[in-house]
Amino acid sequence: VLKLLRRYLPTWSAVLISTVFFGVTHLGQGAGTAVNAFALGLVFSALAIRTGSLLTSILCHSAFNLTWLFLAGPAFGITGKILDPTAGGSASAPPYPWWWIGVSVSLVLAAPVMLTKFSPQRSIDG
Known about the structure:
Elements: H1 2-8, H2 11-24, H3 31-51, H4 54-75, H5 79-83, H6 98-117
Helix pairs in contact: 1-2, 2-3, 3-4, 4-6
């Protein structure tokens, strides 16, 4: 969305619109999550523009999700609410699939290599 919008709009407008879109897609998880997604979307947009690659934003999004859902969530006792909002935070919520955790961990481990691979001078417009 960002790349497409940058073809027709100034960068700041493209970032704002794509970031609002990113936030809105997270509204199903609550208003707080949508606001958080908007703020992170600004960071992810800056990364995509600076590196010229969406991959850096994908890796950072995966790292954030891994950290929040598998480390911070259990540490603060809110994993149940994240996994199943209707459970009221019960510990009986089903765990994430093993493959999802594996993919998240793999992306986080690959992040340093991928972030150094892309030159900061590249443009997202290619």
